[in-house]
Amino acid sequence: MSNELLESLRWKKFPVLNDGYICLTDVMGSEKDIIAAARISYGKDARGELGTELASDEKTLLRYLFRNRHNTPFEMAEMKFIIRAPIFVFRQWHRHRTQSYNEYSGRYSVMIDSMETVNPDQWRVQSTTNKQGSGIGEVQWPDDTPFDVYNDEQSAAHYLSSRQRELHEHMTHVYQERLKFGVSKEQARIDLPVSNVSEMYAKCDISNLMHFLSLRSDGHAQVEIRSYADVILYEMVKVLFPNVYQAFIDFRLEAMMLSRLDQLVCREMQKHPGWHFEDQFYRSVFELVVTEQLPEEWSRGKRCRERDECYEKLGKLLGFIE
Ligand SMILES: Cc1cc2nc3c(=O)[nH]c(=O)nc-3n(C[C@H](O)[C@H](O)[C@H](O)COP(=O)(O)OP(=O)(O)OC[C@H]3O[C@@H](n4cnc5c(N)ncnc54)[C@H](O)[C@@H]3O)c2cc1C
């Protein structure tokens, strides 16, 4: 990482969501420092240098360390960010105990007059397969919508966005009113929604940052926090720590863990000739193997998440599933 590269990124605001952003404010250490820390184990020259590219044996070492979860050398470099985001994003972010935070205070200061809003084309329906996730489809008017609310001219999504606007206006008004009555700031804010925007500093070492990104840049993470994680990963880590980035993509984000039972299914399926040729055949051999070879909790019952995940993993390996 060169000084110029770092300076080109420092304080650059990357807009995220309606009114949020993320900005890298500081970096401590480089990939050289990660290598230097690892090499102290065997008494080699252990000085990191800013602005020097990794030699090929150093890249190999870094990939080895990452692959085998030798995490502490990756704690020798750190990144610090300033983040503006809705409180519901911070609620998820703050679960990561290995970062240091300092947040805007609604006890000292008037709450930021900004809420995350959802445009009509951004409402997401409840997923039918993942209780925590969103699915594909458009929001619909419920069957019991009262006649005076239902509007032929307006889509359900437009209705929801206009209701959100009304709600935000009302809540902001009530909050401001309380302040005028002389209510303390710490109490006046208590009914404000989690869509209210806040700001914080966050600092994290690279080892824990990659753990954060493995959870929050993943498809299972809520899209709003993922939008921030993706900026960190693709706009910052990729540029400043390119070998860490590549190892992360190769060994974590796009890697696949095969459990003992996954491997058993794989081995058993290989005994059936042609199982990998056709989508339909893959499904029937999978079901046969699961029923005949695997423990009851896997093979019986309508729903078994482990079994579904195994089916998906092998399907991905064969290219039947995206
Ligand atoms: C898709 C998704 C859905 C989620 N759903 C829910 C939910 O429904 N409800 C909910 O409450 N949370 C939920 N979470 C939050 C989740 O359970 C974790 O709290 C969060 O992801 C932080 O993970 P972590 O503890 O590994 O990370 P960090 O706190 O950053 O910790 C990193 C690692 O450090 C170690 N560590 C940190 N602190 C300790 C400690 N005190 N003791 C031992 N080891 C420690 C652990 O190895 C840990 O993995 C969800 C997270 C995701 C990504």
Write up this protein:
The chain is α+β, with helices and mostly antiparallel strands. It has 13 helices and 7 strands. Strands 1-2-3-7-4 form a 5-stranded antiparallel β-sheet. A hairpin with a 7-residue loop joins strand 5 and strand 6. The chain starts with a helix and ends with a helix. The structure holds flavin-adenine dinucleotide. The site of flavin-adenine dinucleotide has 11 residues, from helix 7.
The strands making up the biggest β-sheet line up spatially as 1-2-3-7-4
Helix/strand-derived category reads alpha+beta
What is the number of strand segments? 7
Number of helices: 13
Proportion of beta-strand residues: 5-15%
Helix and strand pattern:
HEEHHEHEEEHHEHHHHHHH
Small molecules (ligands, ions, cofactors) in the structure: flavin-adenine dinucleotide
* Cα-to-Cα separation, first versus last residue: 35 Å
Q: Please state the overall shape, judged from the principal axes of the Cα atoms.
A: flat
Specify Rg, calculated over alpha carbons.
25 Å
Which tags fit this structure?
5-stranded antiparallel β-sheet; alpha+beta; about 325 residues; binds flavin-adenine dinucleotide; two-stranded antiparallel sheet
In short:
The chain is about 45% helix and about 10% strand. The chain is built from 13 helices and 7 strands.
